[in-house]
Specification:
Strand order of the largest sheet: 2-4-8-7-3
Bound molecules: zinc ion
Shape: globular
Number of strands: 9
Largest sheet: 5 strands, mixed
Number of helices: 10
C-alpha cells in the first residue's frame, strides 16, 4: 500500500487523545486472562462496548487531549502515512470517508463524517468507558471510531495474523462500515440479543467486512478532495492477502479454537474466518455496496 507522497492529510478527521489520563485507572492490554476474556467478548471490531456488557460502570468521562495532538504535528503528507502507523491510520480514515462521501452523493444522499479517536489504555465514550482490550470499535452514540494502535501488535502476537499496513486499513474500513450502517439504519438490527452463525449480529459484521472490501476496490481510484488525485496510489495482491489474513485471524471459529479449544457456532457474533474472508472478497471484487446483502 502506497500513498501519494505530496497529498496533504486531513487530521481533523482524527482525534488524538493518546497518553491522556481518564478517570478509572489504567488498563493493560493482553495482561492475563481477564484481558483475553474481554477480547473474546468484545470482539474485534464490535459496536459500542456498552452492548457487550463491558462498560466499567464509571462515569465515562470523555478523554481530552492533554498536549497538542501528535497526529496534527507529525502527519502532514502521504509520505508520513507511508512511514508512520498513526499517520497511516489518518490517511486510511481520509480515503475511506472520501469514498463513502462520493458513494452517498452518487445516490443523492449525504454522508456524515465520523472521527476516529486514537487512544491508549482506556477511553470514555457515549457507549460507556472502554479499555484497549475490547479491540477497535464504533460507538453509534457519538458516531466515532475508537482505536488503540497497540491492537495491531495484538493482531500479530495474540491472534497470529501476519499484520502489515493493509491489515490496519481493513480494520479501520470495517469500523467505518458500521458508521455507514448507522446512517442507513441497518446497525440497529444487531440489537436483538441473539448470537450464532445466522444471527443478525453476524450478518451486520459480515456486511461491515464487505463494505471494507468495497472501499478497497475503489481505494486507488477515489479522488482526494484537495488534490483530485487518489490518496492511495498502490494496493497490491500482498496487501489484500494481509487484509484477508487479518479477517480470518479474528474469525469467531479461529478465536474460539485458540482461546477455548473448541468451536461453538451458536455463540458466534462476528462470523467464521471463512465467512469474513468471503464477504471481504465479495465487496472487493464487486465494488458495489448493494452487493453486500448479508441481511437478506
Ligand atoms: Zn464490527
Amino acid at each position: 500500500m502506497q500513498f501519494d507522497d505530496d497529498a496533504d492529510l486531513d487530521t481533523s478527521e482524527v482525534r488524538d487523545v493518546r497518553g491522556s489520563r481518564v478517570p478509572g485507572g489504567r488498563a493493560t492490554v493482553g495482561g492475563g486472562i481477564a484481558a483475553v476474556i474481554a477480547l473474546i467478548l468484545g470482539l474485534l471490531f464490535g459496536v459500542g462496548p456498552d452492548e457487550l456488557g463491558l462498560s466499567a460502570g464509571d462515569s465515562g468521562t470523555t478523554a481530552t487531549a492533554s498536549s497538542a495532538a501528535q497526529v496534527e504535528q507529525t502527519c502532514r503528507t502521504g509520505r508520513d502515512a507511508d512511514t508512520k502507523d498513526d499517520c497511516r491510520a489518518v490517511a486510511v480514515v481520509n480515503s475511506v470517508q472520501d469514498y463513502w462521501e462520493q458513494e452517498f452523493a452518487r445516490r443523492g444522499a449525504r454522508y456524515g463524517n465520523a472521527r476516529t479517536v486514537l487512544f491508549t489504555d482506556r477511553v470514555g465514550t457515549a457507549c460507556g468507558s472502554a479499555t484497549s482490550a475490547v479491540g477497535p470499535f464504533y460507538c453509534p452514540g457519538d458516531r466515532q471510531v475508537y482505536l488503540d494502535l497497540g491492537f495491531f501488535d495484538e493482531l500479530r502476537t495474540t491472534f497470529g495474523a501476519s499484520g502489515g499496513p493493509f491489515a490496519q486499513a481493513y480494520v479501520v474500513a470495517h469500523e467505518y462500515g458500521h458508521h455507514v450502517q448507522n446512517q442507513l439504519g441497518t446497525l440497529g438490527r444487531t440489537q436483538d440479543g441473539r448470537t450464532g452463525e445466522n444471527s443478525n449480529a453476524v450478518k451486520v459484521e459480515l456486511q461491515a467486512d464487505c463494505y471494507a472490501g468495497v472501499w478497497a476496490h475503489h481505494a486507488t481510484t477515489t479522488p482526494d478532495e484537495a488534490t483530485g488525485r487518489p490518496l492511495i496510489t498502490e494496493l497490491n495482491g500482498a496487501d489484500i492477502r494481509d487484509g484477508l489474513d487479518a479477517a480470518a485471524a479474528v474469525g469467531d471459529d479461529r478465536i474460539q479454537e485458540r482461546f477455548q479449544g473448541r468451536v461453538t457456532p451458536e455463540s458466534w457474533t462476528h462470523g467464521s474466518a471463512a465467512q469474513r474472508q468471503q464477504w471481504f472478497t465479495t465487496g472487493f471484487r464487486g465494488g458495489d455496496p448493494a452487493g453486500c446483502d448479508t441481511l437478506r
